[in-house]
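Lab meeting minutes (informal)
Scribe: AK
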Amino acid sequence: MLYLIDLANELGAREIVTRTEEYQQVHHVLVAVDPQWIHLYKLYLMGEPFKGKQYTEEYLYYKNPWEYAKEYNSFPVPVYFDIHWRPPAEIYDYDSNLIIKILLRPGTEPVNMEGINSRMRIIQEHAPVARFQAINAKDPISPLQGGVSISPGAANAGTLGGILRDRYSSDYYGLTCGHVAPVNFTDVEHPSTLDHSTTTVIGSTYYVDVPSVAATTHCTMYDGTTFFHQMDLSLIKLNAKADLKIINIGRLDGIALARDLYTGMWAEFNGRTSGHRTLILGAIGITGKVDNGSGSECCFEHLVQLQDYAVANLNKVTPTQDGDSGAWVIVDTPQGRMWAGMVIGGDRKQVGWFIMAEKITDHLKNAGFELEVA
C-alpha cells in the first residue's frame, strides 16, 4: 500500500501533512482510495454500463450508507487495481481518486485547510487516538501455535501472533508486540498468568523494539526533528514444541508484500480477546500518533487500518480489543494465504491498526535474523 503514499505525495500530501503538524488535535493523517471510485472500477471490470440500476444503487449508498447498507467497496476475490484508471467524467468529476483523511481528537475543532494546493479531497473526522492493546484470556494450546494468550509474568498480556522459523537452523521464534513483552531476556508464559492458573514458559524474549514516547507534542514528518516509529515488536526464542499454524486460520503460504495490499481487501486474525475476526483493510497512515496506555504518545508512520465490513457490527464489538496486540493479520492472495501484518492496537471504537509484515521482516533481517513463516 506504500504506493498510495507515493502517489499522494505527488498530489500535495506533503503540504497537507505539514499543515496538520501545527495542530495538537490531529492524531492521524491517512490516504485512502475513494469507495465510489472502487465501485465504479468494479463495474468497469465486470463490463457493466455506467448507468441504470447499478449506478443508481451505488449513488444512494454513497450518499447515505447508514440507510442503504450495501457492500460496494470490497471485492470477492483478490483484484489488482489500475490506480490511474479514470471513470467517465460525467459521473465522476473529481481530480483524484485518492482521499486524505485527517483524524481529530473527539470534541476538537477541525483544522483550517484553506490555501492548500492539493488535487485530493480532504475529509476531517473525529476518532479516538489508537491505544496499544494488551489484556485478557485464552486456553492452553499444545503444540504451541499462533493466536494464543501469552504474558511476561503477571504485569502484561497479549497475543502470540505467529511462529517464525530460522532459515539456517532449527530455531523457532514467536512474535508479538514490543509493548506486550518489552524487556529482553525475560521468560514468556502461555497462557497468560492473568488468564489461567496453570502456565508454561515457552521461551524468552530475544530481540525487542519498543516505541519510545515522542520528545515533542508534535510529530513533524518532513523537517527531520521527529523520529517516526515503524516497529513495535518482541521476538521470543521458543523452547516449547511449536507448529507453524495459527489457531482458527491454519498454515500460511508466505508473506504478503506491501504493494499487494489494498483498501477494501478482506483480512482475518485470531486475537486472544476477540478470537477469530474477519475484517477489511482501510487506509494507510502517512503519519500518526499512538497512545502507549499511560497517557503519552508515540509517533508512527505506515500503520494500516483494520475495519469492520458492516457498520452495524460496530454496535456489537470493535474490530480489535485489548489483548489482541500481537495478533497476525492474514490475507488471501493469488499466491495463497499470506501474513500481511501484526496488530498493535486500536481506537476502541471503529478501527484497529497493524504494522505490515514486509516491514517487520525487513527490520528483522537488518537486525541479523533470516526468518520464514512456511
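Next up, CB showed the second protein from the same session:
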Amino acid sequence: MGCFGRTVKSNKRSEPKTTKKNDVTSPKKLTNDPNIVHKNINRDNQTQPSSDCLKVTLCGNVNEEVDTKEEDQLALDAKDTLVEDEVSGKKAQTFTFGQLAVATGNFKSDCFLGEGGFGKVYRGFIEKINQVVAIKQLDRTGSQGIREFVVEVLTLSLADHPNLVKLIGFCAEGVQRLLVYEYMPLGSLDNHLHDLPHSKKPLAWNTRMKIAAGAARGLEYLHDTIKPPVIYRDLKCSNILLDEEYHAKLSDFGLAKVGPRGSETHVSTRVMGTYGYCAPDYALTGQLTFKSDVYSFGVVLLELITGRKAIDNTRPRNKQSLVEWE
C-alpha cells in the first residue's frame, strides 16, 4: 500500500473461507494466506520445514510509559496467528493509543492521507521523538488483519536498508493495532505515474530510472542479504514510496514470506498478491519463488516505461493487461 502521501484504496479478493470484507474493484488482491512468515504447517513434502520460520530478535528503546502488558500483546498476536513469536525486546518503539491519537489530533480528517487494505493512514507529529510520521490504523473489518500486522512488525524490525521504509514503532493495545512509519512526503509512485491532473508534469526519464533502481536494490536486499531471505510478494507501484528527492522505498510487508533455502526450490503456499502483478506460474501452482518478485518488478518497470497501468479496465478487453498488450 502506498501510504505516506495521498493514496488510493487497494482492493483485495479473499478466499471464500475468510469472513472479512473484500474490495471488488481493480486491481484485486488475490486470496489470503494464513501462512505468512511463520512456522509452517506441513501440508505436503513441498512445504518448507518449520525451522525456516522468521527468526527475529528485536532490541532497542521501549517507551517507558508503556507497561509490560502492551509489550506482551505482540507476542500474543504472533502466537494466536501462528506467526513466529520470538519478540523478546523490540527494535521498534511501542506507543500507546493515546499517544498516537494526540499525534494525529484524534485522527482528524485534516491528517488523513489515504486508505488501503490494512486501514486508514494519517500524518502525525510525535512530540517525544520530535518527528513527523505516518500512522496506519488497522481496520478490523478490512481485508488484512492481525496476521499482517505481526508480519509487518517482525519483517521491518529485522530489516535495515535505505530502500525499505523505516518502521518507527507500533501500538498493540486492546483491540487497537497501529503502525508508525517514517513519513514519505511524495507518497507512492502510483500517484506520480497514473491518472495525473493536466497541471502535473509526467516524471522525467532519469527520475523513472532512479525509482526503478531503488526498488531493485530494496528487492535485492530482501532476497540476498537479509537472513532468512524474504519474498516480498506484493511489489507494485502503490507500495513504492518516494521521499522528497524521489528515492524509492518498498513498503507494506504484510504478505512477506520466508523464501526457500538450501536445496529447496520453492515454497508451497496459497496464492496471494495483486492482480496484474502476480507471476502466472505462482498463480497457477502456488509454488512461490524469488522469481515471483522479479516478475512483479518487471511489471512495475513496464509501467515506468510506458506510463500505463498494470491492469486498466477502461481500455478494450484485449488491451487491459499491460503484460499482454500487443
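CB comment: The longest strand covers residues 119-126.
No objections, moving on.
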